[in-house]
Design goal:
Layout: H1 2-21, H2 27-49, H3 55-71, H4 74-89, H5 101-116, H6 119-131, H7 135-155, H8 162-179, H9 186-207, H10 220-236
Amino acid sequence: MLGPIINSCGIILGGLLGPLLARFIPKRLQRGLPPTFALASFAIGVTMIMKFHFIPVVVMSLILGTAVGELIYLEAGISKGAQWVQRRLKSILPVPCSLSREEYSSQFTALIVVFGASGLGVIGAMTEGLTGNYQLLLVKAMMDFVTAIIFSITLGPSVALIAIIQFLVQGILFFLATSIHHYMDPIAMADFSAVGGIVMVAVGLRIAKIMNFAVVNFLPALILVLPFSYLWRHLFG
């Protein structure tokens, strides 16, 4: 489980370095890096989409998976959970003097979702559990390192604590994926990667503020694509 460890270390290091480097990081750099993250996410997503085997399976999984996510208010539920965590932490973490409690709470909660429930983190953890390949989480670690530096300039070193939440989420996903490893074959893995690629494209569009997709609501599609891939082969060959 190397990927989750590297990713969490990136957040911890970035969260602690940010306040120390604040005076040396110009505003234009803070504004210029997120679009680059969006482009990287988009490029990774396109590469993954091209691996598809059964395009009807990919589309069906995405549509029904998103419907499930919307019906159970998955993204809203995770946001509420993040708010609960932030309220528990605020008694031990001082609010930076430049922010009101409301501003701090809103930004900290959003960051929990960005780090802990991002499409890249979910796909990366599951991919490592299924194949042992941690490259996606290595990419996420590099992006999160810089993101943690930027946000910790205003939110303080408390950003580093989000690594605990992210590690728990990715660890659970890693072991869940490991448990279904024996059911994965090249065809199912190809369709899984394609669905994950579409989620990655949506992440890129969201980071770039082109389209505010509720990306977390897409995640059930990553579970549905596996049985759908087997069902499609059984029915249509």
